[in-house]
Amino acid sequence: MIDHGLEQELLTHGEYMSTTVGRSMWPLLRNRRESVVIRAVKGELSRGDVALYRPPQSDKYVLHRVIRVMEDHYLIVGDNCSVVERIPKEWVIGYMDGFYRGEKWIPPESRFLRAYARVSVAISPVRRRLVRFREWFWSTGSKIKRRLFPKKS
Amino acid sequence: MKTKSGFMRRKLGTQEVIVAVGEASKQFSGIIRLNETGAFLWDKLAEGDMTEQKLVEALLGEYDVPQDIAERDVANFVKTVRDEGMLDD
Fold this sequence. Notes:
Chain A is an alpha+beta fold. Chain A has helices at residues 6-13, 111-122, 127-148, and strands at 15-19, 34-40, 50-53, 62-69, 73-77, 85-88, 92-101, 104-106. Chain A has one domain (6-122): Ribbon (Umud Fragment, subunit A), CATH 2.10.109.10. Helices cover 27% and strands 30% of the residues of chain A. In chain A, strands 1, 2, 3, 4, 5, 6, 7 and 8 form an eight-stranded antiparallel beta sheet that branches. Chain B is of the alpha+beta class. Chain B is 49% helix and 21% strand. Chain B contains four helices and five strands, in the order βββαβαααβ. In chain B, helix 3 packs across helix 4.
């Protein structure tokens, strides 16, 4: 997600909306499909919040989930990623405060979103294994499919 | 003229904004904040088969505004959304 006006908008209005790009938060946020509301961060985020951060010297913004709050940094990971990032709190400029899925507004206080966050945080210790299992599953499934249904030349 | 598919009107707090999704988001990654008149004109454009004259007439029918101000507002609005590539002519 690259948007040079984002920080200025957050500074001026305290809120912004953007369409997410990438698959790191799939299946919650699909590539270029969901429009998320971003609010300027005030104080400390909590476990399960989706943080927007930008590393210094970078023009790329990242929207990933906080799985642990430490003294001066957060441990953050994308819902569809296995690598946990150690992000200094001063890099975080906003957080997701609900989103549009198609025409449907998903508010931050919705039971669905809160439950999703709890599950996502809960499985974070085994996420790497889950991602590897999923890759193995799809890869093996494709091999079996190719053997059972070989392409006719 | 008509709004291009992929440009959506959304509520952001107390404001209405336009964002792009899907293929349109490759072309436009920001937002356009709309006031009440802007939201009205956007909805008219989304209906399709619009001209600037029709928009002016719709604006005059909805709001108590002088003709010259309506014409200026419509021209400015259409220019803004056209410059951002949000219109199919």
